[in-house]
Amino acid sequence: DSSYQLIVRVYNGTNATVNSWTAGILFYEPAQISNSWNPNLTEVQSGFYEATDIGWNGRLEPGQSTTFGIQGNHDGSFIRPYCSQP
Q1: Which residues does 53 contact at the CB level (< 8 Å), separation at least 6?
Q2: In the beta sheet, which residues pair with residue 28?
Q3: Distance CA 70, CA 66 (A)
Q4: Dist. CA 28–CA 45, nearest whole Å
Q5: pLDDT digit string (tens) for 35-77?
Q6: Nearest to residue 49, comparing CAs of 81, 10, 2?
Q7: CA angle, corner 26, sides to 16 and 57, nearest 5?
Q8: Which of 33, 36, 44, 58 is a plausible cystine mate for 20, CB 3.0–4.6 Å?
């Protein structure tokens, strides 16, 4: 199977409420994204994407989390994406 599904959990580990979040995701070529849900997804550079909240899922109280997902295709040599906080 040459498809994948990525579920990312964004967790507020601080002592303060956050009102928005951004996660950086590096996809190694030739992985392709075909669908995403619950983030705004923007390709910043070739293979590097920023996922940001879509408003209703941006506010996180301390200890709360939200998730988003991405689906896509690859050529069979899929390397797991790397996630970070930019």
Answers
A1: 10, 20, 21, 22, 39, 40, 66
A2: none
A3: 14
A4: 12
A5: 999 999 998 988 888 999 999 999 999 999 999 999 988 776 6
A6: 81
A7: 35
A8: 58
